[in-house]
Structure formats: structure tokens, C-alpha cells
Specification:
Elements: E1 2-3, E2 9-10, H1 41-61, H2 65-80, H3 84-90, H4 102-123, H5 125-144, H6 151-164
Antiparallel strand pairs: 1-2
Length: 165
């Protein structure tokens, strides 16, 4: 033991203390939850990927560092004004893109949105129209958030509008 300036003694080690050798506890896989409408967790994740991907698709169409902040805030504001049924579909934690490149993301964004709309139409038809309206309002807000809607953003919004049907 060695003395400290405060008079207490601290142990000295010739080697660092042994690391915890016990394995980390593991949790059994949770069963897939299903909402009252029959939407599974996996389908909800697909819906979220499609919707949030659509907003990012418009945002990246005319990129800019500060523009990304304005566009993100505009998209969040539009989504927060969504009806409760749509907000329930979009609720969840952090969502990270699954694409490994910008080109891959661009190729996946519109098809993922189309798939998300198909899931909602099949499982919760009343929410389908509301989801379409919310997504369209949100992507238009994203496009207009920084210096107005550019030509590239107009093309992205047109692709999304087409995917929404």
C-alpha cells in the first residue's frame, strides 16, 4: 500500500486488476410485436425506413452543410404535425441508413417508400391516405427549407409523389 497526500492508503498493483471474466448476459430474442392493425415490428421498421428515407432523398438532392439542419428541422416539424395514427407508425429510436453509398441510397429510397405505403395500405387502409399526405407535406417542407426548392429537389419530390400513387 502507498500513502496518498490525504493520509489514506491505496493499494498498489504490479499488474492491472483482472478483467471481469464473466460473460455478458444475453437476452433471449423478443417475440415480434404486432400492433392492433397487424403491423409487425419489421413492417414498422420498413415503414420508418421508407418515410425517413424519402425526406433524406429530397435533402441530399441539393446538399449543403447548413441546409441539412434547416431541412431536418422542417421535416421533423411536418412529421410532428401528423395525425396520431401516422405518428404511431413512425415512432421509434434512431434510424440509420442501410445503404453503403450515396448511389445505393438513391437507388433504394423511392422503392422503400413505395413498399412502406403498400404495407400501410394492406394493414391499415385508413392510415394510408394520411401517411401519403404527411410524407408529401414533409418532403415539400424539406425542399423549401433552404433557399427554396431547387431543380434537383423538384425531381426528387416528383419521384416521391409518383411512389405515393
Amino acid at each position: 500500500m502507498s500513502a496518498t497526500p490525504f493520509g489514506s492508503e491505496q493499494p498498489t498493483y504490479s499488474q492491472p486488476p483482472a478483467a471481469n471474466t464473466m460473460p455478458a448476459p444475453t437476452m433471449p430474442a423478443a417475440p415480434t410485436a404486432v400492433t392492433a392493425s397487424g403491423i409487425t415490428d419489421e413492417e414498422k421498421e420498413a415503414i420508418r425506413q421508407g418515410v425517413f428515407g424519402a425526406l433524406a432523398y429530397v435533402s441530399q438532392a441539393d446538399p449543403g452543410f447548413f441546409a441539412a439542419f434547416f431541412e431536418s428541422a422542417a421535416g421533423a416539424k411536418a412529421l410532428s404535425a401528423a395525425p396520431a395514427t401516422v405518428q404511431q407508425l413512425l415512432a421509434g429510436g434512431l434510424l440509420l441508413p442501410e445503404a453503403s453509398s450515396l448511389e445505393e441510397f438513391r437507388a433504394q429510397a423511392v422503392p422503400k417508400l413505395r413498399a412502406a405505403v403498400q404495407i400501410v395500405d394492406a394493414k391499415e387502409p385508413d392510415a394510408g391516405a394520411a401517411l401519403r399526405q404527411v410524407v408529401l407535406e414533409a418532403v415539400e417542407a424539406v425542399g423549401a427549407a433552404s433557399k427554396g426548392v431547387s431543380g434537383n429537389e423538384q425531381q426528387a419530390i416528383a419521384a416521391i409523389r409518383s411512389a405515393l400513387g
